[in-house]
Amino acid sequence: MPIYVVGHKIPDSDSICGAIALAYLKNQIGEEAVAARLGELSPETAFILQRFGLEAPEYKTSYAGEQVYIVDHSELTQAPDDIAKATIVGIVDHHKLGDLTTDTPLECWIRPVGCSNTIIKMMYDFYQVAIPKNIAGIMMCAILSDTVIFKSPTCTTADIRCVEALAEIAGIEDFKELGMEMFKVKSAVQGTPARDLVMRDFKDFNMNGHLVGIGQLEVIDLSVFDDIKAELEADIKALKVEGNRHSVLLLLTDIMKEGSELLIISDDSDLTQRAYGKPTVDGKVWLDGVLSRKKQVVPQLQAAFA
Description:
alpha/beta, 6-stranded parallel beta sheet, 11 helices, globular, 306 residues, Diaminopimelate Epimerase, Chain A, domain 1, 21% strand, 38% helix, inorganic pyrophosphatase (n-terminal core)
């Protein structure tokens, strides 16, 4: 029976590329593995896979009775719905430790770095397995995406060194130029339905018993949202009601200005004041220097709920 390697719901490039890279590694060390996904590819991820000639992982939502290796999270809200009926054999993650639990011992590779693919590169080095050129390329792109081309405060020396090594394997001379191509793809939002944009990179979190949804859209110029911001605001309001969420936040992140406009709908009108020291005005607040949901948004919110 194979191990299914799968990332979180509404997968980003780290989840998809990490599943492909880790499944290949597992097969090379004699552990049968299949890369899987819990949702559709984002435009950025589709661009990355096409650039390096790789197919998307198998779309699979049910894992009851299966062996599962979790990538890029350890949260029940982000895992397969029937994960309690599966056997989790391992976790690779770079986020806070979530609420997934297991009945049996498991392999854990958890590091405070900018991307799960950085950890997977460490695993390749540990097992002394050569990385194919195309897989090195997608791993490199995932790290560039998660670290916002090294601008994110989550970026570490390990992430930079792994990108440099992976770029050499993949034959990419200017990886920063490729990174900008990726973010240009992310910035092409016109004509895309508001719900698709809000859900493009969206995660639910259980914060002290309150369900909080946080989405993020990273672009090279916030002006791309000028004509559709009202639609985005209306959609996060609808999403809050539909999911019976306490709060829904949408980060509109400008990677060039290095900051985010936060759109929020919440049962608590003082939430941003308590979390970030800034009041919400007309459902919005500018957070200067905020690029990372993982490091600069989620921990502060959890502290506010505590």
